Amino acid sequence: MRPVELPLPDPQALASSRALLKRIDAELGSAGNWISFARYMELALHEPGLGYYAGGARKLGAGGDFVTAPELSPLFARTLARQVAQLLEPGEAVLEFGAGSGALAESLLEALACPYFILETSPELRQRQERRLGGRVHWIDHLPQRFRGVMLANEVADAMPVHALAWTPGGVLERGVCANEGQLAWSDRPANGLILRHSKELEIEIPPSGRYESELALFARAWMRSLGRFLERGAILVIDYGFPEREFFHPQRSMGTLACHYRHRVHGDPFYLPGLQDITAHVDFSALARAAAEAGLEVLGYASQARFLVNCGITDLLAEENPADAKRYLPAAAAAQKLLSPAEMGELFKVLAVGRGIEAPLLGFSSGDRSHAL
Q1: How many angstroms separate the CA atoms of 38 and 165, rounded?
Q2: Are 215 and 176 in contact (CB under 8 A)?
Q3: Terminal alpha carbon distance of the chain
Q4: What φ, ψ does residue 87 adopt, rounded to 5°?
Q5: Largest interatomic CA distance in the chain
Q6: For 164-203, b where at least 16 C-beta lie within 10 A, e where not — what string?
Q7: Is the dihedral angle over the CA atoms 261, 262, 265, 270 positive or is it negative?
Q8: pLDDT tens-digit profile of 133-163?
Q9: What H or E segment, with its residue span, contains residue 288?
Q10: pTM for this structure?
């Protein structure tokens, strides 16, 4: 059933979604009519040619489904560049994961003189990046065996597949996906193996309703461990919306953090038009920090986006704009407000820095560092 007030897609997009549904139905048919939500999310977002990030639908900007910080204003990237510049040593590079429209790379390249690499899984977004950036960057398909420099992941971890769980008085259930009367639907079964082991490591308070739902981001943890193996010297900056573990699994957050983004509307039905909407979950930054430590990396800082950007001098950069030039100044001021406001992106978004071989305190965490909360 279509969530209230969501627009219908055009016929071509609808045909693509139906093709993905057939692919999902085929997998359900070969798997006893049950797959984990993590597997469903992987298919819905990354199935070659059909998934949200692997297909041709426009994702970013006014004509897409959401707007990221680099899309708001070059101010975000110009501020971030100050932190990246502090971390880089001569000859080192920047590696950006999921570079979106290329807006962040474009602004960073104006501020930094270093090799720039992009690892992009979306063919449509890579084409947009190539048109925008030309020969100024290098696109890669796999992680390099050795890397020195700064890795950037801005709004990347939230789109990695997550396992959906439900804690009940009778035990922990893994929430999966089945086909029910021709429609995709939730289907629970007892958690086991690695999922059950990780679920028991958490102190979950079951509410009076008798059910607490949330997510385990095992893909994101594995991703962080793999980055740690390849990083010889440098830092990884993860910028995303999320919480430390204590807040992520707070008793009041008993319905989990899953959210879907479609045409700048947020709703809660992950089975609506698979392949045409983004499916996300908030980031458990404590889990990422532990995964980094398992790979031999050190936590270098953790702060709200607002505190990080202020520490890096966003207000100074805004002050350099000429208020008399309203056409340029007003959009920059409005973007800064959205990036910094606790009611917008300033508090919900966090910045986590981990690394190896970094000695100096980082500029972005010179005050307001919350590493102790991880």
Answers
A1: 11
A2: no
A3: 39
A4: -85, -30
A5: 66
A6: bbbbeeeebbbbbbbbeeeebeebbeebeeebeebbeebe
A7: negative
A8: 988 999 999 999 999 999 999 999 999 999 9
A9: helix 285-294
A10: 0.94
